[in-house]
Hints:
The structure holds 2 protein chains of 2 kinds. Chain A is mostly beta strands. Chain A is 0% helix and 56% strand. Chain A has no helices and 11 strands. Chain A has strands at 4-6, 11-14, 19-25, 32-38, 45-50, 54-58, 61-66, 71-76, 85-92, 96-98, 102-107. Chain B is mostly beta strands. Chain B contains no helices and 11 strands. Chain B has strands at 4-7, 10-13, 19-25, 32-38, 45-51, 57-58, 67-73, 76-81, 90-96, 105-106, 110-114. Chain B is globular, with a radius of gyration of 13 Å. At the A-B interface, β5 and β10 of A face β5 and β10 of B.
Amino acid sequence: QKEVEQNSGPLSVPEGAIASLNCTYSDRGSQSFFWYRQYSGKSPELIMSIYSNGDKEDGRFTAQLNKASQYVSLLIRDSQPSDSATYLCALWDYKLSFGAGTTVTVRA
Amino acid sequence: GAVVSQHPSRVICKSGTSVKIECRSLDFQATTMFWYRQFPKKSLMLMATSNEGSKATYEQGVEKDKFLINHASLTLSTLTVTSAHPEDSSFYICSARTDSNSPLHFGNGTRLTVT
């Protein structure tokens, strides 16, 4: 499997703040990247997909991809307690490989 | 939207018995399905890629004779954990893509406990 490194956290942010999550990958040829959210005891759900360099915004979430530096990040703006979960970075290369996940806790 | 259904959601079995987990794509055909395993506080690890009409492709370190995968139709893949042991207790999750350009969609997972 392709190596995907993710700062494992945990990350604690106050409600309303920005949560910043980072992920690096080893294969320069990787093209497709995803962020999944996983609540405790549940299966992952897709938040964002990103394929091109730059930013992609969807509501309070912004994914950033920098292929030259081989990193992908996720920003969660106006964090809410319901955002408390584990966030998994993943890349696709004929199969989906996951990072270790970052557990985010949003303090009310 | 795409839905992947997994059954059962939770199963408890005795050591030495076998357990079958079903994964269905409800509103699309999936020529390929993926089986993951997740231990507590760990990330998802790919076990095998299930291919409709052919043998599954197993990841390194996964025993193909212990984890039997059958993908007999375009909407159903099954994972059978044979001669289960307590160390097989884990969260098993299947997933599928609607097409080659879509992200993976995950089933709700199966919590297996082997006593």
